[in-house]
Design a protein that fits this description.
heterodimer; A: mainly alpha; Non-ribosomal Peptide Synthetase Peptidyl Carrier Protein, Chain A; B: alpha/beta; Rossmann fold; GMP Synthetase, Chain A, domain 3; five-stranded antiparallel beta sheet; globular
């Protein structure tokens, strides 16, 4: 989780990712941010995020996003 | 035909009930667009608007496009403004233009009020409910010339003050003919509009509808975060044609979208504004069987000026050309001594060259200049500041910039604009904006007591999303060159290493 928070904070230091639960819906993450974010996550966690999982539900909070990463890592094992 | 309003009238006569422009809430037929623009245009004339700038500040919608035509019908030119442009940009536009009239919905009215707008705000619903005045409309049409301004769109300026590009009806008419020929538009085409309505990029879809009777659906901005629903949207609306900025297309290809869903109806995919990476482009070519066009052109020459229809595949590291000039335009390259060259600054001449920048003779004189190859009579060309070369096939290739202009998230940005915005924030002493071209990352290094997080909060209030740095760092002192200027190269190295 720490590593994910670091990636998010680098992108948007002004946001409290531990409490924010509407990153997409409130427009914290902006159009095309998502490509950079996903590339960083895929490098850092050695996972591939399938296109169908790129949804507001998975990206609205750091918690939900981390849960998705963990789930993808488990599938890999 | 003096203005494209003749083409609109024509379409409203041929296919009144066919859809012209659609957003998620409303679909306007050609007859609707004609009716709305007649009514609102008459209302504007009634208010006393005459050959002047009229601000249009409403939500991005089919109706906003109809309001652009209303402004034309009143013999005026529209200045499109959107809340997402950010406070700084909107304030500078108000300052530069000082319009007497603004057509604004609730959000627009509130913001104009906050920014101290001194003119009269007109409610679009009331304008549209106005009775059309055929005599007044006819009189204005007769008095309008094709060299009169059609719109005023603003683009980034290196000092922080944006430049207002004055597009005229004659150039728009020429562009309408060239772009529809290049894209090979027909009446069954459906465009998916990605571009905001406050940039000239949206003219492609709008003018195609007027010339060919095609239709355009506005893609909601939030879909550009979720590629699978985005492609499903294209399939749902049976979209045949895309004219998108490169990041919007690579969003789909880079995120493995085609494993899940593939566009079913696309016939033409045109891209521009940035260099398309061959790796991403090959993914498109492999999955979507369409005509692909690379378009190039500055706002100062009314949209696009040049196109290349892809006829081969490109390896990593190869350049996809920008091709050849549109009909009725010439592109040539000038070297440092202003001589014609095979490699040099891209210069454009033709009807599409705009009048210049609004109330800005100094910056106009720098870019809109006498053709150095013509000593015989006055002829204005536009110097793009872009560098290009002719390849061995006779195709034009884009090489880069002469200055600090960059393209980020599909928008044209002067690094100086971000710096100027940062420097207005309390707690920032000095700032240098930098850009990593390889990875397309915009960054900012600065000095001063303000924390990074507080700086971003402040910046967010002032500038559009695409001008926000993706990486930022506070340092003790900006690196300087031997001449005492900020050393952008060293600052870039500091941030990206």
């Amino acid at each position: 989780m720490e590593a994910l928070l670091e990636i998010l904070k680098e992108l948007h230091p002004e946001t409290d990712f531990e409490t924010e639960e509407a990153l997409v819906d409130r427009g914290v993450l902006v159009s095309f941010d998502i490509v950079m974010l996903i590339t960083r996550i895929e490098e850092e966690f050695d996972v591939v995020i399938p296109a169908k999982d790129i949804t507001p539900e998975h990206f609205n909070s750091a918690k939900a996003l981390y849960a998705l990463i963990e789930q993808l890592q488990e599938q890999d094992d | 035909m003096k203005t494209m309003l003749t083409a609109l009238k024509n379409q409203a006569g041929i296919r009144p009930d066919a859809p012209a422009f659609a957003d998620p809430d409303e679909t306007l037929t050609f007859a609707d667009v004609e009716r709305i623009s007649d009514a609102a245009g008459s209302a504007l004339i009634g208010r006393g608007a005459k050959r002047e700038a009229v601000l249009v500040f409403t939500a991005r919608s089919a109706r906003e496009i109809a309001l652009f035509f209303a402004v034309w019908k009143a013999g005026c030119f529209y200045v499109p403004v959107d809340a997402e442009m950010g406070e700084n940009r909107i304030r500078s536009i108000l300052d530069r233009v000082r319009p007497r009239f603004a057509i604004a919905d609730e959000t627009g009215r509130k913001l104009l009020n906050d920014y101290g707008f001194a003119g009269e705000t007109l409610d679009p619903d009331l304008l549209i409910a106005h009775a059309p005045d055929a005599d007044a409309l006819r009189a204005v049409e007769a008095a309008t010339l094709d060299v009169d301004p059609a719109y005023l769109v603003f683009t980034s300026g290196s000092t922080g003050a944006p430049k207002g590009v004055v597009g005229c009806h004659r150039a728009v008419r020429d562009y309408a003919a060239q772009i529809t020929k290049t894209l090979n538009v027909c009446e069954t085409d459906v465009f998916a509009m990605q571009a905001p309505l406050y940039v000239d990029a949206c003219l492609k879809e709008i003018l195609s509808a007027l010339v060919c009777g095609s239709s355009a659906v506005l893609v909601p901005k939030r879909l550009f975060m979720t590629p699978v629903p985005l492609v499903r949207f294209l399939n749902e609306h049976k979209v045949t044609t895309l004219c998108w900025v490169v990041p919007a297309l690579t969003l789909i290809s880079a995120l493995h979208t085609f494993d899940e869903v593939v566009p079913q109806h696309l016939r033409t995919v045109a891209f521009g504004s940035e260099v398309m990476p061959p790796k991403q482009f090959r993914i498109w070519q492999e999955h979507v069987d369409a005509r692909y066009l690379n378009l190039y052109g500055p706002t100062e020459c009314t949209g696009m000026s040049c196109s290349y229809e892809v006829d081969r595949t490109f390896k990593d590291g190869e350049r996809i050309p920008i091709g050849r000039a549109f009909d009725n335009a010439e592109i040539f390259l000038l070297d440092e001594n202003d001589h014609r060259a095979d490699e040099g600054e891209i210069c454009i001449r033709g009807t599409s060259v705009c009048h210049g920048y609004y109330r800005d003779p100094e910056r106009t004189a720098k870019a809109f200049v006498q053709n150095p190859l013509n000593a015989d009579y006055p002829e204005t060309i536009y110097r793009t500041g872009d560098l290009g070369r002719w390849n061995e096939r006779g195709e034009l290739e884009f090489l880069g910039r002469k200055d600090d202009q960059i393209k980020h998230m599909g928008h044209r940005i002067e690094l100086g604009e971000l710096e100027a915005a940062a420097k207005t924030i309390e707690g920032v002493d000095a700032a240098c904006a930098v850009f990593d071209r390889e990875r397309s990352i915009l960054g900012l290094v600065y000095t001063g007591p303000i924390e990074r997080s507080a700086l971003l909060v402040e910046l967010r209030k002032q500038v559009p999303d695409y001008l926000l740095p993706k990486l930022s760092r506070r340092i003790d002192a900006l690196p300087l060159t031997q001449n005492g200027k900020t050393d952008r190269k060293a600052a870039t190295a500091l941030l990206f290493r």
